Amino acid sequence: MSFQKRVKKSTIIEGVDSLTMPTNIKDVITISGSFEGGSLYAPKENKQIANLTAAMIDKGTKSRDKYEISNMLDSIGAEINFSSSSNHINFTASCMRKDLDIIIELISEQLCQPAIHKSELDLLKTRILGNLERSKEDTKKQANIALLRKIYSSDHPNFRYTIDEAINLINELSVKDLTQYHNNIFGNGSIRIASVGDFDTNEINSKIEKYFSILKPQTLPKIEQFLPAKKSKQYKESIHIADKTSADVYLGQSISIDQDHSDYIPLMIAIYILGGNFSARLMQTVRDNEGLTYGIGSSISSASYRRDGYWSTWATFSPELLNKGIKSTKKQIDLWNKEGVKKDEVDVKKTTLIGSYKVGMDTTAGLAHRLLANDEKGRTISYLDDYPSIIENISLEEVNKTIHDYIDSANLIEISAGTI
């Protein structure tokens, strides 16, 4: 597969770009789209507005209520979904080729003129608040929130509200707040639409032009510069949650780089060797050899869109094995940090990562998501073709250098949550 040859990028109208990749999967079309928005562009005093506004988009429009829309989609076996991330408002759709016109029109209508009614907002709030109350008992989530609050300052996009703070902020939001946010953020200006499947490129682009022309220009606020992650210092915190049969632990720190940094992929490989899958070091030692846990792993997170990410190791232990499990985990991290990894480990993980990358594109949905994410990050289409060779060309020396440069096992942040 050559993305460079098969993908065409076009500016349909000002502020709307289309990426199209026809395939031989007959009759099926998948769309993945986004525009700049999300919590990064929400008012500083209440970032929850982005998630709630996105969640209200499928609750009906000024022309059709949610039941009419649902019946329309059910009758043709199609799906449309909306969501919000830190940087974007996202929409996805899947349909048959014969229904493409209906789907693009409906996406445009929902984005342009949602009916944000108080009754629907109250129902949504009730559901979200119920989930948040239940998440107070989620030991893994509580530990992760505490870790991010320790790594990042409150102005950083990776910072997290406490659950009680999130509940209070959601309770404060009104129809007026959501409507104002929608009027500013939802519109043409940064829209990207990636389409994969059985279609003619000119046909789909003409439909996008027809229906997305009704959207007004978006008005994005200026993004204030946020402080980088705090320098990692040794820290330990325990969060007591009653009546839990296991405890979740996070060990982590900032890495001070993003995905575009030349050291990112070597460091990603290094962390994958430590705890990326079932054959990684932590699984083989702490779980398989010592029998201290059923689940343990390491990863880099939240390093997209020019923000400094963090790396962490997560594990779950029974309360009586908690201290022993943390000690064993730290021992493996320390050995990895001080001694590095071996060539055969790097070679195996590179093969795994390349294979996983290719498997992730074995569906139209996987392809559409990959096209969109690549374009959101400002990368050329050819980067998708080059990525496997970029991984393949990473050397053992590069991997071990990043472990030395970015990991400090003596200054890990340690958060435990459970019945401790």
Short description:
The chain is α+β, with helices and mostly antiparallel strands and 420 residues long.
List keywords for this structure.
420 residues; alpha+beta; 16 helices; 46% helix; globular
Question: Can you give a write-up of this model?
Answer:
This protein has helices spanning 3-6, 48-56, 66-76, 100-112, 118-135, 139-151, 163-172, 175-185, 201-212, 264-275, 281-289, 322-339, 343-359, 364-376, 382-392, 396-406, and strands at 8-13, 16-22, 28-36, 79-84, 88-96, 191-197, 235-240, 247-254, 295-301, 310-317, 413-418. With 420 residues, the chain is α+β, with helices and mostly antiparallel strands. The strands form 2 sheets. A 6-stranded mixed beta sheet has the order 1-2-6-3-5-4, with helices on both faces. A 5-stranded mixed beta sheet has the order 7-11-8-10-9, sandwiched between helices. A hairpin with an 8-residue loop joins strand 9 (295-301) and strand 10. The protein is globular, with a radius of gyration of 23 Å.
